[in-house]
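// run 5 | inverse folding | seed 20
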């Protein structure tokens, strides 16, 4: 297949994991599963996804953690509306609300959305994709997208949705595993984050910067992550 980021057809096979080929693009360095699972295969897979009940017992702590995480980001973003993509049971959505945002959260898990609405009634939750919300022409000053992009099969469509969802001048905060982190094993297939059909697209900083810059964003900075192979980027919509 061609690279989901740069469309180059030159790829190197890294190996096979969970019966999926893992490729690395010669041109841009993105890694990805090949072929991508079909929507039907993913439906079967995600139907087994439940809600982590332990999170509910620890909801105050979880929200506080997100309040701390958004401390700097919130200062960079204009006030207004926030959207949390892949909101799960709504901790980041609620944290944004506590910073004064009119807070929205979307997810594809029905059970998560119902629970989020029950726990945080002052926020607005919806069973929807980023593309659904972008298709309605809605815009937000702050968009958070934690640990979502590595699950997607339609990278370009999703990036187009991000471009449309973040109002010019607004802030995007996105996180995903980091293939370029020093803690990632030399044999990348041994890394637990290479886990198709769960994770399908694997970014390092250069690939993330390219994706965002090609879709209307200026990367402000990556959070330094010393002890966790996680990429956390803050970008402003131009
Ligand atoms: Zn590429």
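// decoded
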């Amino acid at each position: 297949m061609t690279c989901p980021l740069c469309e180059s057809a030159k790829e190197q096979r890294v190996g096979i994991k969970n019966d999926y080929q893992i490729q690395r693009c010669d041109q841009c360095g993105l890694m990805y599963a090949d072929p991508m699972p079909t929507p039907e295969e993913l439906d079967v897979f995600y139907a087994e996804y439940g809600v982590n009940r332990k999170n509910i017992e620890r909801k105050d702590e979880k929200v506080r953690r997100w309040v701390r995480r958004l401390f700097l980001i919130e200062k960079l973003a204009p006030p207004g509306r926030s959207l949390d993509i892949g909101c799960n049971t709504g901790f980041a959505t609620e944290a944004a609300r506590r910073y004064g945002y009119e807070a929205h959260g979307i997810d594809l898990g029905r059970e998560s959305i119902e629970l989020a609405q029950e726990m945080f009634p002052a926020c607005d939750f919806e069973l929807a994709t980023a593309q659904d919300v972008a298709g309605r022409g809605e815009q937000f000053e702050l968009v958070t997208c934690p640990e979502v992009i590595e699950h997607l099969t339609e990278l370009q469509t999703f990036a187009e949705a991000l471009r449309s969802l973040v109002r010019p001048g607004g802030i995007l905060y996105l996180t995903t595993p980091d293939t370029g982190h020093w803690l990632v094993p030399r044999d990348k297939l041994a890394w637990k984050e290479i886990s198709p059909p769960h994770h399908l697209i694997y970014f390092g900083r250069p690939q993330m910067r390219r994706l965002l810059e090609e879709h209307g964003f200026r990367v402000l900075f990556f959070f330094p992550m010393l002890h966790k192979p996680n990429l956390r980027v803050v970008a402003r919509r131009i």
